Amino acid sequence: MARITKAKWEENFANYNAIILRIFLNEGWDHVTYDRLSKETGLRKSTLQGYYPSNTDFEVALKGKVFPIIAQHLDFESKEALIASWQSAMKDTQFRMVMRMFVMHAYKKGADGSGRQGVLGLGKLIADKLPEDDALETIRLLFGLTVTELMGIDETSF
Predict the structure, then answer these.
(1) Scanning 9, 22, 130, 132, which has its CA 20 to 30 A from the CA of 2?
(2) Same domain, 50 and 125
(3) Do residues 70 and 58 both lie within one domain?
(4) Residue 43 has pLDDT above 80, yes or no
């Protein structure tokens, strides 16, 4: 097998990360697999493992890219505006896929999951932008909305 330069490896890695991000944002985290990446790139799984030793390493492709997707949808004018913007954002595919990942990772990994840092960052942003409101209570409300939305539960469900 031919060796590649460090620069070429980094270029490839950036390209593969972009593919992972695209799949994740458009189809969901559960579609980011070695098989899917092999189909997208034309590479064997063993080659991809040189970049991502385990499938949990796919998360590196999301680093620094998820929070801006969330934040761009949110209105911090008031707690009510934040809640309304969150509910509206849940109709956006990319926002919804990010929220699905947060919920899945919270269940699978608990406090050890990478999503924890994102939720803490959101909580700090809420505390900064809406200092008169309880950030933890707001986070609980927003993620409660997320779970019920993902489950298809609304006022007509009861």
Answers:
(1) 22
(2) no
(3) no
(4) yes
